[in-house]
Specification:
Elements lengths: L4 E4 L6 E2 L1 H14 L7 H7 L5 H6 L8 H16 L4 E2 L3 H10 L3 E9 H10 L8 E5 L8 H11 L6 E5 L2 H10 L2 E5 L6 H5 L4 E3 L2 H7 L8
Parallel strand pairs: 1-4, 1-6, 4-5, 6-7, 7-8
Antiparallel strand pairs: 2-3
Helix pairs in contact: 1-4, 7-8
Bound molecules: magnesium ion.
Magnesium ion (MG) binds next to loops.
Length: 218
């Protein structure tokens, strides 16, 4: 694999936040008397646009309800996001990749200002050349601003790798004409990811190995 820049997804890929998303969702379901979901059910159904996930779980998404719920969801998520950590080995890998001379960026459905502040608060800004977030909170698609990010990165697209955790990350990589690896520790279960035909890896250690880092380790 000849790679000079990695585009990371944030939620679920670098950040271990599935537990918080499920918890926030269950709070909203309980308020409406709807049954709770477990993380397996969530990972089986999560997709973009996110409005479809809300509909699946029984929410009324008509007449502005989805937009109202998105605000409630984000407020609940934001109030506890500081409890989320990166996945095991993530920061170590970001450091190794930077030392190896690779560029790194984040492309996230998370709103730009929230992404900026979270990355900064977690002391991770040093690893990234660009942080590309969404202009709103409704998580529709990352393709448009993914294109803008790729233009900023410049050079040949086939030396850019997307690392994500959802079918949508694969779709975005396909639209952008870049390589893609999906991690199975995030918002989609492995059988969903397998349908994309992308390479699927279990964790950060496996990515390091795939990229030719840590070859000398036992
Ligand atoms: Mg994600």
């Amino acid at each position: 694999m000849s790679i000079r820049h990695i585009i990371w997804d944030w939620n679920g890929t670098l950040l271990d936040d599935v537990w918080l998303c499920v918890d926030v969702l269950n709070g909203m379901l309980a308020e409406r008397g709807l049954p709770p979901v477990d993380s397996e059910n969530y990972r089986r159904r999560f997709r973009f646009p996110v409005v479809e996930v809300y509909r699946d779980f029984g929410f009324d998404v008509s007449n502005g309800e989805f937009e109202r719920m998105s605000h409630v969801y984000i407020n609940a998520y934001e109030s506890r996001r500081h409890l989320c950590k990166l996945h095991a080995g993530a920061e170590e890998l970001l450091g190794e990749l930077k030392s190896a001379g690779l560029g790194q960026s984040i492309l996230s459905a998370y709103r730009q200002d929230m992404l900026d502040s979270m990355v900064k608060n977690m002391g991770l800004s040093q690893y990234f050349d660009h942080l590309a977030g969404n202009s709103d909170i409704y998580a529709a698609s990352k393709v448009d601003y993914g294109r803008r990010l790729l233009a900023k990165i410049g050079g040949s697209a086939d030396e850019v790798l997307m690392v994500g955790d959802t079918e949508h990350d694969h779709e975005v990589a396909h639209e952008l004409g870049i390589q893609c690896i999906l991690l199975e520790h995030g918002h989609n279960e492995r059988p969903r990811l397998e349908k994309t035909g992308a390479k699927i890896l279990p964790d950060m250690r496996a990515i390091a190995k795939e990229l030719g880092l840590r070859n000398k380790q036992p």
